[in-house]
Amino acid sequence: MQRTIAVTIKMPKFTSHIFVCCNRREPGHRRGCCDPDGGEALRNKFKTEVKRRGLDPTVRANKAGCLEQCELGPTVVIYPQQIWYGNVALSDVERIIEETVIGGRIIEELRISDEMLNTKGRGLGVVSLSLPDQTSPGESENLG
Fold first, then answer.
1. I need a surface site. Which of 20, 28, 31, 36 has the fewest CB within 10 A?
2. Is residue 86 part of a domain?
């Protein structure tokens, strides 16, 4: 008589999930392009580095579609930390893995600030409003 035993294997949670924008646009597009040659070289370098350091299966690097930070690209976002990096080059990958993924430190010169996210590279500006004067000529404002 053969017995069957059910075993539940839990996959460990990701400590870091790296999304690398691999969106492509025509050369010279006004918003830029995160993967101009279409080879996904940046994503591949992240995957290679994660594997080389033995960080899988708790760290994963994936291809992402447009992350809407095109003017600041190539862009990478790391979750669950919600760290956004822009203008990422192949030469930055080892440093991002070492300092951010392993060391938990943000690399300020690559970080896309909250003020720049989702602004098409323009940042949050000061808004100037013209409000009508609420006092009539000869009438003083009541402050008290």
1. 28
2. yes
CA proximity to 62, closest of 83, 80, 76, 82: 76
DSSP state of 14: P
The answer to the question of residue 143 being in a domain is no
- Is-above-0.85 flag for pTM? no
Q: Quick check: 88 and 76 in contact, CB under 8 A?
A: yes
| Tokens found for residue 119 | 């602004």
Domain range for 41 is: 16-102
Q: What is the mean pLDDT of each run of 10 residues along the chain (144 residues)?
A: 78 90 88 88 97 95 92 94 96 98 97 89 58 51 42
Q: List b or e across 4-19, with b for residues whose CB sees 16 or more CB atoms inside 10 angstroms.
A: eeeeeeeeeeeebbbb
Residue 4: inside a domain, yes or no? Answer: no
